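User: Let's play a game. I give you a shape written as tokens, and you guess the letters that built it. Ready? Here's round one.
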């Protein structure tokens, strides 16, 4: 079955097609949920919510752009909406950092599971901005609009996230160099 056929069947709420779509894309979308969620369990919940939203809104997909890209955007928006509703996600305007200096993070020989863990441990506001900017390629203007913050706050939160990650990686490297 082609992707176009699968999409058309999903638009008709065909459970078999929905299951196939889930099988094909759950790993890709789960990776996004892991980046935006503070832990594995919440990422699983977010994935389920994302697929529910995808199945409800699949009729809105108009064929412009890739379907995978559309699903990724729906997933990110679903997760962000959850944080807005729970009000556990609060962005504090920490002032604009004039020079958005790149924080160099050397992560060569760092296990991927450790990197994911430290990203998940970031405060919500830093984790979301970091994931949106670094991993998903959103620009600060887009992040600001999606999160209801200023460009400067987005830049500030990204820089602070990078500094926290850099410190944790340096601690990890120091710990592992001494053993």
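Assistant: Ready! My guess for every position:
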């Amino acid at each position: 079955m082609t992707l176009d056929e699968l999409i058309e069947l999903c638009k008709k709420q065909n459970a078999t097609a929905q299951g196939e779509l889930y099988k094909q894309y759950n790993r890709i979308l789960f990776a996004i949920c892991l980046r935006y969620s503070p832990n594995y369990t919440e990422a699983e919940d977010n994935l389920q919510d994302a697929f529910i939203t995808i199945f409800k809104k699949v009729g809105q997909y108009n064929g412009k752009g890739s379907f995978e890209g559309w699903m990724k955007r729906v997933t990110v928006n679903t997760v962000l909406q959850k944080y807005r509703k729970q009000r556990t996600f609060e962005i504090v305007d920490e002032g604009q950092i004039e020079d958005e200096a790149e924080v160099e993070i050397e992560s060569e020989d760092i296990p991927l599971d450790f990197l994911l863990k430290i990203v998940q441990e970031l405060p919500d506001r830093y984790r979301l901005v970091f994931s949106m900017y670094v991993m998903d390629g959103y620009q600060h203007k887009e992040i600001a609009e999606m999160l209801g913050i200023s460009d400067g706050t987005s830049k500030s939160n990204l820089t602070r996230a990078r500094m926290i990650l850099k410190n944790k990686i340096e601690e990890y490297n120091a710990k592992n160099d001494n053993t």
